[in-house]
């Protein structure tokens, strides 16, 4: 299978400090790959490397077979869209304006978005369930709503590869699942490659095709989600005694074995 995204032996960091080392991954079209790991494990650094924001100490990132280090920023913007964790605009743009800005690499200098551009942007916002906010001021809406706008912006950019850095960090429970389900549908439809950082292993299990588990800047395990996420691997990566199980209703869940809660009525003895 052809790979939209390939990372070969990447090592990178900041200044002389190495954060990630010897990272390898390859993701094909129509696939969602999750990056999981504790805070500081190197997930965001890897995304910045893939997007060409920082240069690797060694190794290579290829998008559609092209070395990212040899591409201009405009060319990269036409191949990779990024949905960041938190967004705020220093100017009073509308939500529609924020989405339309993602087309900057396709619009000629000093030109305004066309009617077709606006129709496409509105359609993408409708897919994300936020078309009613098209004229709302971006800075006046909630953090979760801004995250939905940024997702629509990434989809409007219409690139073969999307990078999402903890896109669920400001979303409520229902919207977390709605966005992941939407991503699943659109990724299959558009044959897009998605690399997404997530903290919740349950979201990874149900919505991601593949997973790469990072710890201390290196890959502990990678592969198909449902075979790679085991008790042992998750415990090593997440730093707790993790248990993968199936409930009485047949639902797969990932939980810590010891539940440190004052409302714990499970019968598990909790050490304090």
From TrEMBL:
GO MF annotation, one: ATP hydrolysis activity
Signal sequence residues: none
PROSITE patterns to which the protein is assigned, alphabetical: ABC_TRANSPORTER_1, ABC_TRANSPORTER_2
Keyword ATP-binding tagged: yes
Residues annotated as domain ABC transporter: 5-241
InterPro entries: AAA+_ATPase, ABC_transporter-like_ATP-bd, ABC_transporter-like_CS, Metal_Ion_Import_ABC, P-loop_NTPase
Keywords linked to the UniProt accession: ATP-binding, Nucleotide-binding, Transport
Family affiliation: Belongs to the ABC transporter superfamily.
This protein's name: Predicted iron ABC transporter, ATP-binding protein
